[in-house]
Amino acid sequence: MESTLPWLILLSPLASALLILLFAHRSKALSVLLSLSAVFIALGASLLLVKNATDTLTSIPWIDLGPALKLGIGLKVDALTRVMLLVVTGVGTLVHVYSTVYMAEDEGKSRFFGALSLFMFSMLGIVLADNLAMMFIFWELVGVSSFLLIGHWFTKESAAKAANKAFLTNRIGDFGFMSGILLVWSTVGTVEFAGIQENLAKLTANPTFLTLAGLCLFCGAVGKSAQMPLHVWLPDAMEGPTPVSALIHAATMVAAGVYMLARIFFILEPSATALAVIASVGAITALMAALMATQQNDIKRILAYSTLSQLGLMVAGIGVGAWGASMFHLFTHAFFKALLFLGSGAVIHALHHEQDIWKMGGLRKTMPKTFLTFAIGTLALTGMPFLAGFFSKEAILLAAWHKSLTIFAAGLLTSLLTAFYMTRLVVVAFFGHARTDAASHGHDCPAGMTVPLLILAVLSVIAGYAGFAEAIFGKELFHHVHAAAPVALVPGLALGAFVIGTIGAWILYHPAIKDPAIFKDAYRIKDPVRIPLFANKFYIDEIYHALIAGTQDMLAGFLGWFDHFILDGVIVRGICAITWGAGYTLRLLQFGNLQGYAFFFGAGVVVLLYILTK
Amino acid sequence: MTSLTLNHYLLASGLLFSIGFAGVLLRRNIITIFMCLELMLNAANLSLVAFSRFHIGADGLPNYNAQVLVFFIITVAAAEVAVGLAIIVALYRARQTTHVEDLVSLKF
Lengths: 614, 108
Description:
The complex is a heterodimer.
Chain A: H1 4-22, H2 28-52, E1 56-64, E2 70-77, H3 79-102, H4 109-128, H5 132-150, H6 157-188, H7 193-198, H8 200-204, H9 207-224, H10 233-236, H11 242-251, H12 253-263, H13 265-268, H14 272-293, H15 299-319, H16 323-350, H17 363-366, H18 368-382, H19 388-403, H20 405-430, H21 437-440, H22 447-462, H23 466-481, H24 489-514, H25 517-520, H26 532-535, H27 540-587, H28 594-613
Antiparallel strand pairs in A: 1-2
Helix pairs in contact in A: 1-2, 1-4, 2-3, 2-4, 3-4, 3-11, 3-16, 3-22, 3-23, 4-5, 5-6, 6-9, 9-12, 9-14, 11-16, 12-15, 12-16, 14-15, 14-20, 15-16, 15-19, 15-20, 16-18, 16-19, 16-22, 16-23, 18-20, 18-22, 19-20, 19-24, 20-24
Chain B: H1 6-26, H2 30-54, H3 64-95
Helix pairs in contact in B: 1-2, 2-3
């Protein structure tokens, strides 16, 4: 029983995806039913696993190439897996339920739920994998399902482009990941986590090599968890339906990178250089994404940059050695960020696909339930004491405090900025009076959408408490969460950052939305703070575009020249000219005089005789 | 009396061959050219017979291999004459000429 549960969790979404793809895609209701039942089965089995809290490992042999490579399809269940299982299936279930309402009118509902099931299958595969090769396969499958879901509305050009961008950007990171797996395998001779851990000495014997392998593996996380400099795909991925953004681009898939780093932390730990790089990348991402978020006007984009920033914080946490704290933050973040995304989805749904926060306003009164839950999510994210985010963020900051003050400062500044931009979002979108017609007709959504919001709101409150978290993490793993010695100053500073950020945003933006000018011209953004550098995301997209377009133009120009002059000119035409020229020259010998031929024949014989008798 | 040596025969053969070749190069009438070709073949025959005669083996007999070769050449020459003359007759019927200078249509 214990060992069949993981298979049930993994295979029920696959069965659902296949059934929908092959048979049920004509019937929307049946597709929804299949997908929902698969996710509920997975959730139930995950809950059972968490309740039993026993570690299992089942494996069936797959590839056997002698001692060099022995690969099994193995499912590993330990404390780390159980946490991720619960996050993935828990948030997944709520998002499935929410989607039945959100996507009710959609033409491609069956396709959507099929892709959602495929995503659940691949994500659970990453979580359950007991070796790097299997993880890589599911890693790629997650990329595929993410591509399908971002591009769900593929007739919209921006969505199709965003899907391509996400997929291609991820490929860069995946290449690094694959190189890392090969590097590890070339030394250790196995890709199974347990095997690598046993033979870690082989890897640590060469520190440079170890650092290289660790950083290559980290590349995979950089792609999937959207760290600098591969973060550009995540904000664009908001083109997908909002439930997808909540599930994939906030709670689960982007967390896969952090999970992977936690899983292979024993490889990273011996290399101080690798950890330092990881911490810096994470801190830079956290800070820059938070700065970008302060100047966005699209409700989903603000949340996307916020996700980037929080992921950066988790990665930085891994970098300072606090992988337990990072997993804890991943756990709490999944709930409140999913809540925020689903809340924004409710707003977008009610306002008929209006996403600009400056065209909202006054939603506090028209959508009270959404406002309440959204506010809870915001406070949990910004680090309000006694809510989930406060505990988990503090755990990371504490670890950073002990390890590196620079990282700690970056984390603290990120917290301040987080409070600032989230308060800005809430104030502008929910307070004041409605600034457009659509906003004045806002209404709370049907129960299918509000119930998941309420459940997530409850979880956002309680997820941080030791009693609740420990029940899920298990004693042993939870011990890693609060490994760092407590320092009284850290929560104080975190609280200070929260207060300054929140009050600062309130002072700046609350008068701004009362400004009568904004009602006269609702479509003109009245942002009292304008920093083009942040609003344009540090021009990174433009730089990439210029770089890629520049190199492509150069390459294309060169290849064009090569094709025209070398391939066509020298090779093809050259061979033709030589053959033709030789033929023409030899043709001149055909002058028609019989005796002339005889003369040449005789002369040839004489020459031959001369040569032979010399 | 100075006896005839192999060189004398070869000289005569070479002379005949050269005359034949000169004829092939210089004469215009195709029948004459044909006769000159025969002359060249027979020059070769002459040298072969001479080789046979002057190559006495251990048993005191000449080497008959060369003479056999001569017979082959004579046979081939006869066949060649038959074919060649037939072609010339056909050519004359078609063109009313046997001068090589008039037969130059096969050229670039």
